[in-house]
Amino acid sequence: MDLELIGKILGWTTAGTVALTGVWTYLGKSKDSAWTRLVSENDRVRRDLQEMKTELKSTNERLGKVETELEELRADRRTLLDFLRDVVSGQFPPDWIQTRARELLARMGRGAP
């Protein structure tokens, strides 16, 4: 065999091996980087979900407090409307009205004047 032919065969073999190794490496990196991106995205979504659950719990607690306060305010409103009806009816003397007004102010946490 001719040395030139052997050189060409070795050259083509080397080029083929390099090309095959490059393609193999490229495909392997693509899979690894895609998997890494997928895992990273999954972790981010899990963190976001956990934060949302924490925020939801906090929001529900605040909502419960607001609903309780709203019910208390509704009860106070009903009481005040009843008192005003009593005052307007003219059935009660001014001293009773003044005493009742002080009681309501004390009960509602505003204190008497």
From TrEMBL:
The chain crosses the membrane at residues 6-27. Residues 42-76 form a coiled coil. The keyword Transmembrane applies. Keywords: Coiled coil, Membrane, Transmembrane, Transmembrane helix. This is Uncharacterized protein.
